[in-house]
Amino acid sequence: MGRSWIRTILDGCGRLEVVAVDDRSTDCIGEIIAGLAKQRPGRVNPLRVDGLPEGWLGKNQALYLGAEVAGGEWLLFTDADVRLATGCVRDANPLRRA
Description:
Helix content is 42%, strand content 10%. The N and C termini lie far apart (35 Å). Helix 2 (29-39) links the parallel strand 1 and strand 2. It is mainly α. It has helices at 5-12, 29-39, 58-69, 88-97, and strands at 18-22, 44-48. It is built from four helices and two strands, in the order H-E-H-E-H-H. It has a two-stranded parallel ribbon.
């Protein structure tokens, strides 16, 4: 998967928590998340969804679970296959105060 969005976010920001939810993916994102969590303890919080409660859709549950454990007041939701420009999160910070 090359340079993941998680690395882009972590490299572009100072103090930041990343909650990465692996929603039963079939590619290597779970391994990437686990590796980053080991490299950056306390900054990357990996979650894995192994099943769905009745009536839930996968995407909705993944977003809900991520938001439940996030400690910040500002949340960014993205998917593993999205490519973010370096600095995009840092550059978005003034927008949240507007």
